[in-house]
Design brief:
It is a single chain. By secondary structure, the chain is mainly β. The protein has a single domain, classed as Beta Barrel (Porin). Helix content is 7%, strand content 52%. It has a 14-stranded antiparallel barrel. A hairpin with a 3-residue loop joins β11 and β12. The N terminus is likely disordered.
């Protein structure tokens, strides 16, 4: 255990020291987008296959809304349950020029049990994929299109764009540690790093490296009484000069959990440093989960945002395949 902690700290130090101006997308419901949070989370759930969808709509009251859609699916290799895999996709569209980012990632993880009772576990993960960015220059306004009286879109812009799109590959790694006593008392924490190959995201002649993003998280669940659980979490994301800390907790109330029927509801309050606070609600219904959060902005953008931030929706479904029991029939001898 001591060696594992030292390795995680060393990994964090190396990655932090290598940071050198762009920022990746972020989520308020970070625990409900686990593969984006850390590739080691691929296959880490109870069930056979997990499907997750996330949608975020932000700054609608300020400008053209920033809209982000993410989809992911993951599972485990049937013959080697300690190997997890998953695919993730997201599309982000921002601003007047419809600056679009599309990313498709393949993820793999490996599960190591540190103790025979599975109380202490580590998972190692990696992801590889494609990142595509493009913008629509036809949506921009230029000085050359002002005819002296008003804006005239039929006039030439006077701008020559070499390209309006860029595609590159990216790679990341991650590791998590889990302390697990039971379903209602456990903790998981991890560190991940993305854009390790520093792909060039410049559209023109200048080389603009995509900065390494380091993500550190912790989440847990603690039983309060027969029906209530505390579900705290923290997420730290670092990318060059950008620092984002999200911390808070939800309270879970189990409505029913017996005879194959399961229902639970969640309500939480969270805080993002120098930016926003947000509330979240959610519900488990059998194999489904639906969560909704809304950000209340308190940054220096308040005069324009009027405290409005963004709404975010998360949907999860876990598929449990039917596994028939193997029944062995024995033939009784004639003399019995």
């Amino acid at each position: 255990m001591k060696i594992l902690i030292q390795l995680l700290l060393l990994l964090s130090f190396i990655l932090l020291s290598s940071l050198s101006k762009s920022q990746d997308i972020h989520w308020s419901q970070f625990n409900d987008n686990p593969i984006f949070q850390n590739p080691a989370n691929a296959g880490h759930f109870k069930g056979d296959y997990r499907f997750i969808g996330n949608y975020r709509d932000q700054w609608r009251s300020v400008t053209v809304p920033f809209q982000t859609l993410a989809l992911s699916a993951d599972g485990r290799v049937e013959k080697y349950q300690n190997i997890g895999y998953g695919i993730s996709f997201f599309q982000d569209v921002v601003g007047d020029g419809q600056f679009r980012t599309i990313e498709l990632q393949a993820n793999v993880s490996y599960h190591l049990r540190l103790t025979t009772d599975s109380m202490h576990n580590i998972r190692l993960g990696a992801n590889f994929g494609l990142n595509h960015r493009q913008f629509n220059a036809d949506q921009f306004y230029f000085d050359n299109q002002f005819d002296g009286i008003s804006y005239n879109p039929s006039l030439a812009t006077g701008e020559a764009f070499q390209t309006d799109r860029k595609t590159n590959i990216s790679a990341g790694i991650g590791a998590t540690y889990q302390y697990y006593v039971n379903e209602r008392f456990n903790f998981t924490g991890g560190v991940g790093a993305y854009n390790l190959n520093r792909p060039n995201q410049g559209f023109f002649e200048d080389v603009i490296k995509r900065e390494i993003r380091v993500n550190i998280f912790g989440r847990g669940i603690y039983k309060l009484n027969y029906d209530f659980d505390l579900v705290p979490g923290i997420n730290l994301s670092i990318q060059e000069k950008y620092r984002e800390i999200v911390v808070g907790s939800s309270v879970k109330y189990t409505l029913v959990n017996r005879l194959g029927e399961y229902k639970a509801v969640y309500a939480g309050i969270w805080w993002r440093n120098r930016d926003a606070a947000f509330v979240s609600v959610g519900m488990d219904y059998q194999s489904w989960f639906v969560g909704i959060s809304y950000d209340v902005n308190f940054s220096r953008l308040v005069p324009a945002s009027r405290t409005r931030g963004g709404i975010e929706i998360a949907v999860r479904y876990i598929l449990h395949r039917f596994k028939p029991k193997k029944i062995v029939h024995r033939i009784c001898p004639d003399y019995i």
